[in-house]
Amino acid sequence: MKYSVEISIRGQSDISQAFGYIAVSSPGNAIKWLAGLNERIESLETFPRRYGQAREQDHLGGDYRQLVYKSHRIVYLVDEASKTVGVVCVRHAAMRTLGEPETEAF
């Protein structure tokens, strides 16, 4: 059975920011990155639980999953009742975990 995939406003903003960052130095690569990212997100229509749990679940609770695409993590939740996959955010792998408290610098 196929799931409906929805991208949150935050997820859309994350994608737009990452695309803009890449496009500054390489517009062609930004277009390829975006096409590949969208393809990976669309792949969540089938078997979305095939990817591992995201580290966000430790801070936010719930069954967050992640799909890694190049240097970014697509963080999403699966709602079995409505057969919906909600993309919560798209984060660069080097970024702090969503919901994790900031640590003080020495």
Descriptive report:
35% of the residues lie in helices and 25% in strands. The protein is α+β, with helices and mostly antiparallel strands. The chain has one domain: YaeB-like fold (2-Layer Sandwich), CATH 3.30.2310. Strands 1-4-3-2 form a four-stranded mixed β-sheet. Helix 1 packs antiparallel against helix 2. The longest helix has 17 residues. It is globular, with a radius of gyration of 14 Å. The relative contact order is 0.21.
Q: Could you outline the blueprint of secondary structure elements for this entry?
A:
Elements: E1 4-7, H1 9-25, H2 27-42, H3 57-60, E2 64-69, E3 72-79, E4 84-92
Parallel strand pairs: 1-4
Antiparallel strand pairs: 2-3, 3-4
Helix pairs in contact: 1-2
Question: What labels describe this entry?
Answer:
106 residues, alpha+beta, YaeB-like fold, 25% strand
Q: What coarse outline follows from CA principal-axis ratios?
A: globular
Q: What spatial order of strands do you see in the largest sheet?
A: 1-4-3-2
Q: Tally the helices.
A: 3
Question: What proportion strand?
Answer: 25-35%
State the end-to-end distance: 51 Å
- The first-level CATH class is given as Alpha Beta
CATH superfamily: RelE-like
Structural class: alpha+beta
Helix content: 25-40%
Beta strands, count: 4
CATH architecture: 2-Layer Sandwich
Question: Sheet bearing the most strands, described?
Answer: 4 strands, mixed
Low-confidence parts, pLDDT < 50 over ≥5 residues? none
